[in-house]
TrEMBL record, chain A:
The chain crosses the membrane at residues 6-22, 68-87, 93-113, 134-152, 164-183. This is Fe-S oxidoreductase. GO terms for cellular component: plasma membrane. InterPro entries: 4Fe4S_Fe-S-bd (IPR017896), 4Fe4S_Fe_S_CS (IPR017900), Csal_0991-like_N (IPR021872), Cys_rich_dom (IPR004017), HdrC_iron-sulfur_subunit (IPR051460), Helical_ferredxn (IPR009051). Keywords: 4Fe-4S, Iron, Iron-sulfur, Membrane, Metal-binding, Oxidoreductase, Transmembrane, Transmembrane helix. Residues 650-671 are annotated as: Disordered. Residues 245-275, 324-355 form the 4Fe-4S ferredoxin-type domain. It comes from Vreelandella subterranea. GO terms for molecular function: 4 iron, 4 sulfur cluster binding; metal ion binding; oxidoreductase activity.
UniProtKB/TrEMBL annotation, chain B:
The keyword Electron transport applies. Keywords: Electron transport, Transport. It comes from Vreelandella subterranea. It comes from the Bacteria. This is Electron transfer flavoprotein beta subunit. The lineage of its organism: Bacteria, Pseudomonadati, Pseudomonadota, Gammaproteobacteria, Oceanospirillales. The keyword Electron transport applies. One of its GO terms (molecular function) is electron transfer activity. Belongs to the ETF beta-subunit/FixA family. Pfam families: ETF.
């Protein structure tokens, strides 16, 4: 009897799964076209899954082992089940393998179940709570129906007239298992993450993120440029269908593990943002409906069930409609600091920040609704090329006594020192002066653009004003193309990121170094000597745009080590560093929360017991120093280095290498 | 902030806003002029009024940039009356306004470029025979051809006026700030050029133009000794203690009073 029911069940479930898959694909195809090499992506899928995704999952060993056992067991069991029970190839070898696979899956599902006994707050509940039971139903039932195949159970046991009860129970279990695992996978159950996730990995919008056999697996963090030449292309994302199809696919891949929300500084500060909920809202918008079925942490202060959307309806309610009449409120999008902690944590490699900036672009470029000081700052950038609306001719006023060499006079140097908009900020001017002192001590052949420099466009771009960003970027690129230099050094990680990772798409390719990297190189080359550290204990705060965006975790630590400092690391440091709250224009849009992000970060510093926090970013310095009543001092790495500089013996200094080509011009100017 | 302006007129209220090319005070880059942009904002906040933007000028590159600034506020087109660079724009504007016949004309108090005398609204009102109101802070309502407006006076004072339409009203920095100018609508918006005979401004051709100097500020002499008095003096705006309010006087008497004051202040010698 089972031999007739099982193939029917299996192939019905498979057929339904195929129908569901086609429906799901149709949902994704509502999005705009994106250039993806489908074949290459599919070919790269196994590696992306087994290597890159697994690396992220494996940050939690228990879960990665659980997932290997469960998912590996399931995939093997599903294939073998179709062969053995669907097609009736009852070989004992296949049967044995199937027993093994289902047993492995069962063991895995026990751990899944254990995790669900007292689940951490970041996990979604709802349908996810039944998943371990479904996994068990599938694995146990498959195990049991396979026992007769390998002859471990007398054939007659399930054939007799008395055993109909057993058969009904078994068939019921099989149906439940197949329903969750095959049918639910494409019709929107928790197992959807496997189907959408696999395709998402294959057709990811940033294939550079993944490793290949030759190595690699680089960071791909620069935002993608909008094509402003094409007047018919939408400026950013207004409605879910304005995302590219592979972005929609990416949203659908979310497994609601909540690692993003655990890392999100805005959520922790009580601002109305939760990256996980945002992605789920995009899924709701793509399929149409309300967010009432969401079973995880809501946006702080925003009850679940009040928002709804459609694929072709606006994501953020236009001014004519009241807030909450749409999918997401604008302040949710403006709470993000673009710190990328969520993207870094996401085991599905979903690109939250890209999506947020896409939606911000619409709000700024089409609706002119950049909140709070946003409009003023953008106007300043347009009119004066700097955030504060200062006279562009006063960019170098802080260095009036320093006699900084100008690119316009030298034309060619080794190092172009990019000052950034921090040159208008009195606090950052101290850092810049320290950096100049260090460069001079190491006899670096450098020059600045001076008044020719403009804001890099970082804030404009992250506030969604792609037009102003591209205008600034193109003019900066034109300026830089006039001069010859080997590398750009800057003490601003935001400029560093934009110059290094985002100007390339617009035609400006440069070798850019953060000052900490450059100082570390100078030290290694023996061009700097430091007096021993006499201060107290020190911790280091990783700037998001240096660390997570550009992978530079080591150089600042090496510099501090060279200074003789033994770091007291904070609990959240390196790639898991907590944002200072200063990125993405967040201090400008200033969405209120229950507490401030920099306060939380200074609390981290306090918990580490350090008396001084070393930073490497003007934004971080401003944000952290703005915290009142702290026990720790905030100093830039350049300042610490400048304070520790020791004059080298005279003979050594004169023999130091200077670029002979540039020397005569340099002296002409300085004298 | 949408105002609740009751328009009980049978016909839709039509508002024309005269806009000029602005200039950033630090960099001199062309932009929407601040006061004119506030005038556009005020027109847009009038609920369902039909708003028409007009500009008369030489239509150079700076003009295009500045007009895009206004279009970005969500305006679909700016009517651009092309004039010679040395033309007087008042006759052209008067012509076009007479033809378009809006009920209300809004504009900034003075332009940021060109002559910047702030006289255009007065000259237009004189030519057209319309009422002119200066320093509008808010339009409260427009009913049956009469607008109730709040006029801004120094030190945050407001005066409620009833103005019979058609009228020309100027807007300065006491009006609500202009909304953000967005790239998308600015790019889509249309600059509708139309020609109109230029009347050369003969007077202006004889002028010599030079950058303005900063005007000297009157020093505040604080005689008091106590902190409270010094604080009051610091918080108070420089105000003229010896002012004179003239009510119901003939124009000659008024002119005489102004003439005397200018002499006293040393403006006229």
């Amino acid at each position: 009897m089972l031999n007739t029911i099982l193939p029917i069940l299996i192939f019905t479930a498979l057929a339904l799964a195929v129908i569901g898959a086609l429906r799901r694909i149709r949902l994704w195809r509502q999005g705009r076209p994106a250039p993806v090499n489908l074949f290459k992506g599919l070919a790269a899928l196994p590696r992306r899954y087994l290597v890159d995704l697994h690396h992220v999952v494996a940050r939690d060993k228990m879960i990665s082992n659980t997932h290997v056992a469960t998912a590996g067991g399931f995939v093997a069991a599903a294939v073998l089940m179709i062969l053995v029970h669907g097609l009736g190839i009852a070989s004992p070898l296949l049967g044995g393998l199937l027993l093994l696979a289902s047993a492995s899956m069962f063991v895995g599902s026990l751990f899944v179940a254990r995790r669900r006994i007292n689940p951490p707050a970041r996990l979604s509940k709802g349908p996810w709570m039944r998943l371990p039971k479904s996994l068990m139903a599938f694995s146990v039932s498959v195990f049991l129906i396979t026992l007769p195949t390998v002859g471990l159970l007398p054939e007659g046991l399930l054939e007799g007239s008395t055993s109909w009860f057993l058969v009904v129970v078994l068939v019921g279990l099989v149906a439940w298992g197949l329903g969750e695992m095959f049918f639910g996978m494409t019709w929107g159950g928790p197992m959807k993450h496997a189907f959408a996730g696999a395709l998402h990995l294959a057709f990811h919008r940033r294939p550079e993120r993944f490793s290949t056999k030759k190595g690699g697996g680089g960071r791909s963090t620069g935002l993608k440029a909008l094509n402003l030449e094409d007047e018919t292309a939408p400026l950013g994302v207004e409605k879910p269908a304005d995302f590219t199809w592979n972005q929609l696919l990416g949203f659908d891949a979310c497994v609601q593990c909540g690692r993003c929300e655990a890392a999100c500084p805005a959520l922790a500060a009580g601002q109305p943002l939760n990256p996980k909920k945002l992605i789920q809202d995009m899924v709701v918008g793509m399929a149409g409906g309300s967010d009432a079925n969401y079973a995880g942490t809501p946006y702080p202060g925003k009850p679940v069930g009040e928002h709804h959307g459609t694929p072709h309806g606006p994501i953020v309610a236009p001014a004519a409609l009241p807030e909450g009449a749409s999918l997401v409120d604008a302040e949710t999008l403006w709470s993000c600091t673009t710190c990328r902690a969520c993207v870094e944590e996401c085991p599905m490699m979903i690109e939250h920040v890209d999506a947020i900036v896409d939606m911000r672009r619409h709000l700024t470029l089409e609706r002119g609704k950049t909140p709070n000081k946003g409009a003023e700052v953008l106007d300043n950038l347009i009119a004066t090329d700097n955030l504060g609306g200062f006279d562009p001719g006063s960019r170098l006023n802080w260095a009036a006594d320093l006699n900084l060499p100008r690119m316009a006079d030298l034309q060619q140097v080794d190092v172009l020192l990019w000052l950034g908009d921090g040159s208008f900020d009195m606090r950052n001017q101290r850092t810049l002066r320290a950096l100049v002192k260090v460069l001079r001590a190491a006899e670096v052949d450098f020059a600045v653009l001076g008044d020719e420099e403009r804001d890099s466009g970082d804030v404009a771009r992250r506030l969604g004003d792609e037009a102003t960003f591209q205008s600034l970027a193109k003019r900066n690129i034109a300026t830089l193309s006039k001069y010859r230099f080997q590398q750009i050094v800057t003490c601003d990680p935001h400029s560093f990121h934009v110059l290094g990772n985002e100007y390339g798409e617009l035609g400006g390719v440069y070798e850019v170094r953060h000052h900490s990297t450059f100082i570390a190189e100078l030290y290694d080359a023996g061009r700097l000597t430091f007096s021993p550290w006499k201060g107290g204990s020190v911790t280091y705060h990783d700037p998001c745009y240096l660390g997570r965006y550009n992978g530079e975790f080591e150089a600042p630590r090496n510099v501090l080590k060279a200074l003789g400092i033994e770091l007291k690391e904070m609990e959240r440091s390196g790639s898991r560093s907590r944002c200072c709250g200063g990125g993405g224009g967040a201090p400008i849009t200033d969405i209120p929360g229950k507490q401030r992000i920099p306060d939380m970060r200074m609390n981290d510093v306090k918990e580490s017991g350090a008396e001084l926090v070393a930073v490497g970013c003007p934004q971080c310095t401003a944000m952290l120093e703005g915290v009142v009543d702290t026990s720790a001092e905030v100093r830039d790495i350049a300042e610490l280095v400048a304070d520790a500089l020791v004059e080298r013996p005279a003979g050594e200094a004169s023999g130091a290498s200077r670029q002979p080509a540039a020397t005569p011009t340099a002296e002409e100017v300085i004298v | 902030m949408p105002h609740n302006v009751n328009t009980l007129n049978d016909a839709e209220l039509s508002v024309a806003v005269l806009v000029s090319v602005g200039r950033h005070p630090l960099t001199g880059r062309a932009r929407r002029a601040d006061h004119d942009a506030r005038a556009v904002e005020m027109a847009l906040s009038l609920g369902d009024a039909s708003v028409q933007l007009m500009h008369a000028g030489d239509g150079g590159e700076a003009c295009g940039d500045a007009m895009r600034g206004y279009l970005g506020m969500g305006i679909s087109r700016v009517k651009r009356i092309n004039q010679d660079p040395d033309a007087d724009v008042v006759p052209a504007l008067a012509n076009i306004l007479r033809f378009a016949a809006p009920q209300l004309v809004l504009t900034g108090t003075r332009a940021e470029t060109g002559e910047g005398s702030g006289l255009v609204p007065y000259l237009l009102a004189e030519t057209l025979g319309w009422t002119v109101v200066s320093g509008l802070a808010e339009i409260e309502s427009i009913e049956q051809g009469v607008a109730t407006v709040l006029q801004a006076l120094p030190r945050g004072k407001r005066r409620r006026l009833k103005v019979r339409l058609p009228a020309i009203a100027t807007v300065d920095s006491s009006a609500p700030a202009a909304r953000q100018s967005a790239f998308g609508p600015a790019r889509r918006g249309e600059l509708a050029d139309c020609a109109c005979a230029s009347v050369t401004d003969e007077l202006q051709t004889q002028w010599r133009v030079q950058p303005a100097r900063k005007r000297p500020k009157r020093l505040k002499i604080v005689k008091s000794a106590s902190a409270r008095d010094r604080f009051k003096a610091a918080a108070a705006k420089a105000d003229s203690g010896g002012g004179q309010l003239l009510n119901d006087v003939t124009p000659e008497q008024g002119a005489e009073a102004i003439f005397t004051l200018l002499k006293e202040e040393g403006v006229l010698r």
